[in-house]
Hints:
Elements: E1 3-6, H1 22-36, E2 43-46, H2 52-61, E3 68-70, E4 75-78, E5 83-86, H3 92-110, E6 115-117, E7 125-129, H4 135-149, E8 153-157, E9 162-166, H5 171-182, E10 189-192, H6 199-202, E11 207-210, H7 216-221, E12 224-225, H8 230-241
Parallel strand pairs: 1-2, 1-10, 10-11, 11-12
Antiparallel strand pairs: 3-4, 4-5, 6-7, 7-9, 8-9
Amino acid sequence: MRLIVLDCDGVISKGEAQPFNPALFARLADLNRRARRGEAVPAVTLNTGRPSPYVEAVMQAIEGWQPALFENGAGMYLPGPYQFKTTPLLTQTHKTALRQIVQRLDREFVQPGHLYWQPGKSVCHSLFAHPPRTISEFLPDVQATVAQISADFVAVPAVLALNIYPAHITKGSGLRWLAGEAGIAPAEMGGVGDSSSDVDFLRLVGRPAAPANATGDVKSVAEFVASGENAAGLLQILDYWQV
Length: 243
């Protein structure tokens, strides 16, 4: 195994506004330092729905040097040359439809004060509900709005958010892109995820794993499921991999 690819929420932390585990970050940073020196240990990177500034900060904290994916595979952060790329799968037609979708959702749901955007995203946008409202209240209407504008986009609920993105751009397509940029075959990677959006990239890696809080479909593709949740589970996975 040459590279470990991690989701963020539900794997390295519990999610939005939750603290990180300093011991976990120290261990990941040590792996990246040793891998960069040429030792026979895997480097560590990310494949997450989070926006690019978040990914850049976490990669700095774990001393990551391999490419990392943000916005569910729609973007790539390259620490060495300090570059941010958008997936080549995003065509001009998709960009035009995306602008229309964002403008319409903003007018119908955000400006009236029902929902708000997660900042920093450019392709895979996320909406959150203003309490006491919930995402589920608006899901049918948001999905209908997206479908009216473009059949190429989907609106998919997550634990707290509603994600809007091109259906063909996923963490799996992102992993294939990452493999080409890093020069590492997916079979030489380990992967850890917890939600349904992680399944397609976990099916590609050589050693998929999951924490105890993962959904059933994720656990079904994992070679190892930790007894611990979130960061505690990831530490157990690293022990299982003996890295």
